[in-house]
Amino acid sequence: MADAPGEGVKVRVIEYREGPFVDREKEEEFLLDRFKHRPEKLLFIYGPKSSGKTTLMEYLVENVLKKDKSLYVNYVNFRGYAIVNYDSFLDVYFQPIEDENKPFIEKALEYLPISIGRFGGNVSLPIKGIQFGLNIELYDRLVEKKIDPFNLLLEILKKIRKKQMPILILDEVQILEGIYMNGEVKRRHLLTEFFNFLVRLTKETHLAHVVVMTSETLFLEKIYNHSKLAETSDFYLIGHLDFKQVQEWLKYEGIEDKEIVNLIWEYVGGSAHRINDAIRIVKKGDSLEHYLLDEAKIYRGKLSHFIAEMLEELDEKRMFKGILEEMLKQGFVVRDNENNLQRRVMNKAIEHEFLFLNPREERIVFNSRIVRKGAELLIEG
Description:
This protein is α/β, with parallel strands linked by helices.
């Protein structure tokens, strides 16, 4: 199990999507090196909000992985889909090849003959790297639940593996929680079946690399404490940028005034998204201090709303304020698993992304520096 680079690692700033992109080379090297070896385990990538997990992976997919003809990349960000039931999950990975789009697909893509039990048909590789096209008969069998989607995916990946190494990247997969494959009858939990399939791809058959990304650390904690998944998985933290990295980025943008650099660090730390906003304010010539103070006030309001609306009992409200005070004094708090009140309150704050839980550590910290500044304003009154 390895973590992303810490203090003092140099940052490279490049242009990506018509704007600056902080590409942390150590993370890129870690992932590319992993993809060179035989798949052995699932890889869970996690980190606090706005640490740049998704942007880094999208950059890597678009600019490195898809240019390597020895690799086949299938990248799904589940937040981009309205997945409310099993059928909508199927729509993410499969589409029917109907008469009107068949000629185009035939010209653009090769077909893979697939046989699942007594059912057979043709499958096309995805145009955009996600949905596999199925001939109508095969698609109908899938929708009618006569074919298991994971057996179908397995057969497709076996075909692909003959020419390329498959890499499956799943972003925000926790969206699938609470969905069942067979309604309420047999109670086949979709996410459980999906993870069983992913373990089969990596640990058992070594057929494909699998990267699972999430920002919901309570969900990740369940995975980390799940005996089977913990044994078959690696966990990789992508945290916020450190001070030297932020300093170098700002230097790239022409911002070297120590007072401005320190002010940005004090309020937003290494959050890439918020640093980008601060850079924009500086370049416009607006007051950076006023902007950052307003952002802190917004988080003070969010914390106040959380206390008023999300914490129902008076002891919960008092507990949360006590947690904030402790974190402001020492920078972290240790969750007491035997204190049900504290655990309940902290879990709610983690769910609302005020606090960050690293399942590999006992300490719980603020999700970002701007949350901390909001907490300071709240406690100071």
